[in-house]
Amino acid sequence: MKTENHEVIFAIVNSGYAEDAMDVAREQGVRGGTILNARGVAKEEAAAFFGIPLHTEKEILMMVVEKDIRDNVLNALYKQMGMHKKAQGIVFSLPVSDAAGLAQPEPPKPQDAE
Question: How far apart are the first and last CA of the chain?
Fold first, then answer.
């Protein structure tokens, strides 16, 4: 099914913070997401350059969202889960061109004519 109304948001956070990130996203209207366990890889010099400790165990929260709430979700996640927080999150979105199985709100039922 073609769609131009959705984007997928990825929030990559330190292990243990994906549920918190989902709570932040829900406050912005996101209905659900998928959490994947992951492992980050980087050179020690990169961590030293950015001045952050390197946590290799990560979680990736993926959420398909309507475009009209994307910016609010990204901003809220960055503000509450960004690199300056314990979650050390990186958040980005990508367009979705095809999607199947997305829960859509049910259209209003027509009123019975009397």
Answer: 37
Cβ-proximal residues to 95 (8 Å cutoff; 6+ apart), any chain: 4, 7
CA distances from 104 to 5, 28, 65, 66, 107 (A): 12, 17, 11, 11, 9
Q: What share of the chain is helix, strand, coil (3-state, %, to 5)?
A: 30, 30, 40
43-68 exposure pattern, b = at least 16 Cβ within 10 A, e = fewer = eeeeeeeeeeeebeebbbbebbbeee
The CA distance from 79 to 53, in Å, is: 19
Average pLDDT, the chain: 85
The pLDDT tens digits for 43-88 are 666 666 666 666 679 999 999 999 999 999 999 999 999 888 989 8
Neighbour tally for 9: CB within 10 Å: 22
Measured CA to CA, the distance from residue 30 to residue 50 in angstroms comes to 31
Q: In whole angstroms, how large is the CA radius of gyration of the chain?
A: 17
